[in-house]
Amino acid sequence: MSEMPTCIGCGMQIQTERPGEAGYAPPSSLNKEEIICQRCFRLKNYNELQPVSLTDDDFLKILNGLGERKGLIVKIVDIFDFNGSWLPGLHRFAGGNDILLIANKADLLPKSVKQQKLIHWMKQEANKLGLKPVDILTVSAHKGDGVEEAMQAIEKHRNGEDVYIVGSTNVGKSTFINRIIKQATGQNDVITTSHFPGTTLDMIEIPLDDERSLYDTPGIINHHQLAHYLHADDLKKIMPKKEIKPRVFQLNPEQTLYIGGLARFDFIQGKRSSFTVHIANDLLIHRTKLENADQLYEEHLGDMLSPPSAEHKESFPELVRHEFRVKDSKTDIVFSGLGWITVQHPDVVVAAYAPRGVEVMIRPSLI
Ligand code: GDP
Predict the structure, then answer these.
(1) Is 192 in the pocket of ligand 1 (CB under 6 A)?
(2) Do 309 and 359 lie in a common domain?
(3) 26, 55, 112, 307: which has the highest count of C-beta atoms within 10 A?
């Protein structure tokens, strides 16, 4: 039997025997010139995700292979979910290869975010996490901003070798690669993209001008991503689609903000001050008194406080409290994958609550 073709969407080898498993396509589709697996077909046409059985071990195996090859590793992170989309230990998988760090979805940041501050912060975070990238860039794969510069940086740092694009699921890796292909060849949407985490399955090889190739590796599921705790319907609501419009709240101590039912922010101690919320414009923010906050959550999670929706609230993890004493003015409290709240004034005590497993951290304001 001749070798089966691969799916033009996800790169998986097509198989016609096991529906529900990766690469399945109905036998009739084999006659077509361009074959797309059922999963990618549904995703493309109905924006609906079919779960497939691919384990974390499979992803790790592919990553492990990177260290044995020679080339530039391009690591893509989601600027909005920097820590949630980080791949811990990539420097160990990299062997001696250089890593170029690209932060995607820059179009979501308010215009007032200072590029220099952002790059500086990413550099510090990367170093803290054990990674010394050869360069750091921001792009919007969606709009195309910065993509040309990113292509030039890739060309410069690959030194004539292959390129491996890695990233956790949902960082926009496929969108980025599609952009590159489009810019280089004029072809549209070669790789499947979607709202849902984990849509790119096997390594896809894209030939470069010389004898080398660019490889799209599978998105790695990072269980710290808020996205994994949400149903697809709810996920759509938290993912910002447009530039975030900061929302300012003047709070007295002992007041609480709920961000849907996904996160909570208590102003515990300090003078009346302003807090600027940077999260998806569609998410509702609910203000209440600290003393009523627990009860409100118990009674109204899934209705007034949603997402998660009533239907999916049972499987949503409990919120975990993180307390911060903020000494400096203009400090961000970051909810990984959701956004951040800027504490405008110094000397306050606040508590941030996020679902168990989702990171909360503090940084000097990017604005
Ligand atoms: P992958 O899993 O890393 O391959 O991610 P995809 O390319 O499928 O993108 C995941 C989601 O992020 C999709 O809903 C994309 O539309 C969205 N996305 C990708 N790039 C950008 C970007 O530059 N800006 C914004 N706002 N959204 C993006």
Answers:
(1) no
(2) yes
(3) 307
Q: How far is the CA of 168 from the centre of ligand 1 (A)?
A: 11
Q: What is the pLDDT of residue 1?
A: 46
105, 193, 196, 239: residue to mutate for ligand 1 pocket, most atoms within 8 A of CB: 193
- Quick check: CB of 200 below 6 Å from ligand 1? yes
Ligand 1 center from residue 104 Cα (angstroms): 8
Q: Are residues 63 and 3 in the same domain?
A: no
Task: Scan for tokens 């549209």, then name that residue.
Answer: 188
Mean pLDDT by 10 residues, the chain (367 residues): 73 84 85 80 59 55 77 93 79 86 94 90 91 96 95 94 88 88 70 52 71 79 76 82 94 98 97 96 96 98 95 91 96 93 97 92 89
Residue 190 and residue 130 share a domain? yes
Residues 159 and 101 in one domain: yes
Q: What is the largest CA-CA distance in the chain?
A: 75
Looking at the structure, do residues 92 and 116 belong to the same domain, yes or no? yes
d(CA 359, CA 344): 21
Chain centre distance of CA 142: 13
Is the separation of the CB atoms in 226 and 236 below 8 Å?
no
Cα gap 277→151, rounded to integer Å? 33
Residue 162 — φ and ψ, nearest 5°?
Answer: -70, 165
pTM, entire model:
0.81
Q: Report the separation in Å between the CA atom of 113 and the middle of ligand 1, taken as the mean of its atom positions.
A: 20
Number of domains in the chain: 3
**Domain extent for 106:** 56-222
* Within-domain flag for 12: yes
Residue 83 Cβ inside 6 Å of ligand 1? The answer reads no
Residue 182 CA to ligand 1 centre (angstroms):
16
**Cα(43) to centroid(ligand 1), Å:** 14
Residue nearest to atom 5 of ligand 1 (CA): 172
192 plus 329 within the same structural domain: no
> Residue 187 has what pLDDT?
64
pLDDT of residue 355: 93
Check if 85 has its Cβ closer than 6 Å to any atom of ligand 1. Answer: no
